[in-house]
Specification:
The complex is a heterodimer of chains A (305) and B (197). By secondary structure, chain A is of the alpha/beta class. Chain A is built from 12 helices and 11 strands. Chain B has a single domain, classed as Orthogonal Bundle (Tetracycline Repressor, domain 2), CATH 1.10.357.10. In chain B, helix 1 crosses helix 2, helix 1 packs across helix 6 and helix 5 packs across helix 9. The chains are: A alpha/beta (305), B mainly alpha (197).
Chain lengths: 305, 197
């Protein structure tokens, strides 16, 4: 009997370059700028090919994109959706649906594309995300929900996008939550990994923005305990986050973004109107009351004297 | 007759100690005096409570639990904020009359001898079940628009200071009428002081 010949490959074969279309709805370009700040952008660009991107070199102009409506591996949509909003003379209700139906994966890039975001405030009735309108699933691409990955955030961290692109490129399954956000990125709260957690535990408030000490939850409106995102795990510019720098989390990854009075914590008789996610009110108040009874000198002093 | 369990014995000690502390004060009440009133040896008493201070802390937590449970029951009932306030006033005065040592202990021992409770009962730790329910009463009142939003302690001080004061002057036999006859007007005063304008 002829022995079996096994060919063992040490390195996995290099996947083909992903063909991407980056389409913009009503946007401030924030997610594009965030993407361009990815320190690994060069490596990423070696693995993808932009059929169209509003800023990067690409194969087609916007006019050609609109007239050809090419196939793609991934359609990235940045900005809020409004049916009669035009790009190169083509209304979104036609252009987006046409490009979406000819792609394998759709990435909803940023909070405006995901839930309506800031731009929805201007015309709440007609502006939405591509799959969700705030928390309601009634966007124009609801029939294609299974191929949509939501990357909410204002803006999206560039590493979150490169994570999703890599997962798609290597054919991996991406686990998602109820808003189709990858759980690998959004199962965490912004509160997780915050350097101020000890101040939160002992109820020591921050007195001003930009300081290293104190918790931003009580007086500065920090949404970290309610907000899903890995901002304090995958750091911004690889070094920091809002809460680390001394400004509160604004809850930008949630459908409720933007809330009113971004820098104030709503209270009823000094008690936070919203409890940290999943924490019963009695438990929170009992623990908070106990913690407030102590004065921890170390936490009331400046870190760097 | 079955011998009382250790827990039952402990409650019996606390009940006697509560009466002595609230009548004689913290410093006049000694462990031998408590043991004498229970009919147990001083040595045995220390098997249950390792010090007078420890016993005093257990007592305030015991009282806070009683009050907390009562207010929790009121908080969870389907009545208006105004009715809840009246129910808390009624409950407080009822306890003050039926078990006066409970409120007396709170006012005359816990609040008057803070040095005893400094270590282990810092801030509101030992009265947490009671204060937590008062927080919930106020927070829910503001949330549904019945009460005016303000600092918790401004409202708490007004509410409990008023009740404590009334019970105190009742204990001093200054009040010309029975304590319960003031319930309706006091409830109304508290509600009108706290309600939305």
């Amino acid at each position: 009997m002829k022995p079996l010949s096994l060919k063992i490959s040490i390195m996995p074969s290099k996947p083909a370059k992903l063909k991407i279309i980056w389409l913009q709805g009503i946007t401030c370009n924030g997610n594009t700028h965030s993407f361009l700040n990815d320190p690994s952008l060069g490596v990423l660009l070696d693995s993808v090919e932009f059929i169209y991107h509003p800023l990067l070199p690409c194969n087609l102009t916007l006019q050609q994109l609109v007239s050809k409506v090419p196939k793609s591996d991934i359609l990235i949509f940045e900005g809020a959706y409004k049916g009669d909003f035009e790009r190169a003379g083509s209304e979104m209700e036609e252009l987006l649906i046409a490009l979406a139906s000819k792609t394998k994966h759709i990435i909803s890039m940023g909070s405006c594309a995901s839930f309506g975001g800031i731009f929805k405030e201007a015309d709440p009735e007609h502006i939405s995300g591509i799959l969700f309108d705030k928390e309601n699933e009634r966007g124009p691409l609801k029939k294609m929900r299974e191929k949509i990955i939501t990357l909410s955030g204002c803006p999206v961290h560039p590493k979150w996008l490169s994570f999703v692109l890599d997962m798609i490129r290597f054919g991996k399954t991406i686990a998602v939550d109820e808003f189709r956000r990858p759980t690998e990125l959004y199962a965490y709260l912004v509160h997780n990994g915050c350097l101020r957690n000890e101040y939160f535990e002992w109820k020591v408030d921050s007195e001003a923005f930009g300081t290293k000490e104190g918790c931003l939850f009580y007086d500065q409106g920090c949404q970290g305990p309610y907000t899903h995102g890995s901002c304090n795990k995958i750091l911004w510019n690889e070094i920091s986050s809002k809460t680390r720098a001394g400004t509160p989390c604004l809850g930008c990854t949630e459908p409720s973004f933007p809330k009113r009075e971004l820098f104030a914590t709503k209270t009823y008789m000094s008690i936070p109107a919203e409890m940290p996610l999943g924490i019963p009110k009695r438990s929170y108040l009992a623990l908070a009351g106990a913690a407030k009874s102590f004065h921890i000198k170390r936490l009331e002093e400046r870190l760097l004297k | 007759m079955a011998r009382p369990t250790k827990e039952e014995r402990k409650i019996s000690i606390m009940t006697t100690a509560l009466k002595l502390f609230s009548k004689e004060g913290f410093y006049q009440t000694t462990m031998p005096l408590i043991a004498l009133n229970i009919g147990m040896s001083v040595g045995n008493l220390y098997n249950y409570f390792t010090s007078k201070e420890f016993l005093a802390k257990e007592l305030i937590m015991y009282i806070a639990n009683i009050l907390g449970e009562e207010i929790r029951r009121i908080n969870e009932s389907l009545i208006s904020t105004e009715e809840k306030i009246a129910a808390v006033v009624h409950m407080y005065f009822k306890i003050a009359q039926e078990r006066p040592e409970t409120i007396e202990y709170f006012l005359r021992v816990y609040l008057s001898n803070r040095e005893v409770f400094r270590d282990g009962c810092e801030g509101m730790i030992c009265v947490s079940p009671f204060v937590t329910e008062m927080m919930i009463l106020f927070e829910e009142g503001v949330r549904i628009g019945d009460l005016r939003d303000q600092d918790f302690f401004s409202a708490f001080g007004l509410f409990m200071g008023y009740l404590g004061g009334m019970v105190f002057i009742h204990g001093e036999k200054i009040l010309p009428k029975p304590l319960e006859s003031y319930e309706a007007s006091i409830s109304e005063n508290i509600y009108y002081a706290l309600k939305t304008r």
